[in-house]
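stage 2 :: seqdesign
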């Protein structure tokens, strides 16, 4: 498992990545961070596919069935459409957030020099067949703001702010940049161990319909024989608590994932836990949203998902109470357990290194054994 020094680096990458402004189609800042990270590791190869997705691979062995860890580079956010007046900007919102959260919400808009400009939403419309649009009033005129600049929620000072506290990380965009950090952290450990043919696929435009993942399938950005472990941050529920470990997600609200890969990964982790009781993990359906494993499975790839249980999903605080009309809507930092984050990295290292070597009894063999022992119950019954 990672050394304390490696874990310190993994936390540093987590903090840096989850603080970067990003939006579907405008993931440039995160891409620059990843490219810089990859350039410092000369044994890694980084390329972009036709859709701008990032593919990072090791030399590794020329195994017929490589393993790719996937995560997406965007988060629900605003993109500037135009400046209406010196202190008025029109933006579109790319992602899934309930309408009540937009009312009088504060934003910070980042110009091309990364300078933030504060604004407040004064109007929300939803044109047919288009992203929702907001009109925002700037605190002061900002002539450096241009179309395509990214805006995100600005959190009220009276509430929790991004940072570490009591084993929890609060950040602007855990979904899915915490998973990007985990994928790169696991790859960094695995490359040192020469753990076979493993890579990372980082996709664009997930929050507006899995665009990058779909493009990767259409362009065959990774081999059709590849097995994909898709990393996500998924809304936590009572049965999938934050702090109980990373989750092998067997499905989402749209589909169930590739059973053979999901079951084999689960069996590997169960065997590892039997020998290392401190290793924590969960296995859940997680129906609160959909993830890229559904996309890859739909196109014939063998895929499954590992996710971090997430609080304040898409920066929406008190979702159930807001939906029930019991509390006013407010935006807040997303949050995850730092132990779950390190656990996800550990899980990926165990899973990748043992997926092909662990002795796992096939389910069919288990069924055959049960039938051998107890089949007489039905075979010898008389009419």
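stage 2 :: out
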């Amino acid at each position: 498992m990672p050394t304390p020094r490696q874990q310190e680096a993994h936390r540093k990458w987590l903090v840096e990545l989850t603080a970067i402004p990003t939006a579907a189609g405008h993931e440039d800042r995160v891409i620059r961070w990843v490219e810089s990270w990859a350039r410092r590791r000369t044994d890694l190869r980084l390329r972009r596919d036709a859709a701008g997705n990032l593919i990072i691979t090791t030399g590794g062995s020329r195994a017929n069935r490589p393993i790719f860890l996937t995560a997406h580079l965007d988060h629900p956010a605003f993109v500037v459409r135009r400046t209406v007046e010196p202190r008025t900007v029109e933006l579109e919102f790319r992602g899934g957030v309930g309408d009540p959260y937009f009312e009088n919400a504060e934003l910070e808009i980042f110009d091309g020099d990364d300078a933030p400009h504060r604004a407040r939403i004064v109007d929300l419309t939803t044109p047919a067949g288009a992203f929702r649009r907001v009109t925002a009033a700037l605190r002061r005129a900002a002539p450096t703001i241009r179309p395509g600049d990214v805006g995100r929620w600005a959190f009220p000072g009276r509430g929790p702010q991004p940072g570490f506290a009591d084993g929890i990380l609060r950040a602007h965009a855990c979904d899915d940049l915490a998973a990007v950090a985990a994928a790169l952290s696991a790859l960094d450990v695995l490359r040192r161990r020469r753990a076979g043919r493993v890579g990372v696929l980082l996709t664009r435009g997930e929050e507006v319909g899995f665009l990058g993942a779909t493009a990767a399938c259409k362009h065959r950005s990774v081999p059709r024989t590849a097995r994909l472990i898709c990393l996500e941050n998924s809304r936590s529920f009572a049965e999938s608590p934050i702090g109980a470990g990373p989750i092998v997600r067997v499905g989402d609200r749209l589909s169930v994932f590739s059973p053979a890969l999901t079951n084999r990964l689960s069996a590997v982790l169960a065997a590892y836990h039997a020998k290392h009781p401190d290793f924590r993990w969960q296995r859940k359906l997680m129906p609160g949203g959909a993830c890229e494993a559904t996309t890859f499975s739909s196109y014939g790839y063998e895929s499954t998902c590992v996710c971090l249980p997430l609080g304040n999903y898409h920066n929406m605080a008190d979702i159930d109470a807001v939906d029930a009309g019991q509390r006013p809507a407010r935006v807040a930092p997303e949050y995850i357990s730092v132990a779950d984050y390190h656990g996800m990295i550990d899980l990926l290292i165990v899973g990748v290194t043992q997926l092909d070597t662990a002795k796992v009894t096939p389910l069919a063999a288990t069924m055959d054994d049960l039938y051998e022992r107890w089949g007489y119950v039905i075979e010898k019954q008389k009419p």
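stage 3 :: structure notes
- The longest helix spans residues 174-192.
- Residues 4-74+162-354 form a domain with the Aminopeptidase fold (CATH 3.40.630.10).
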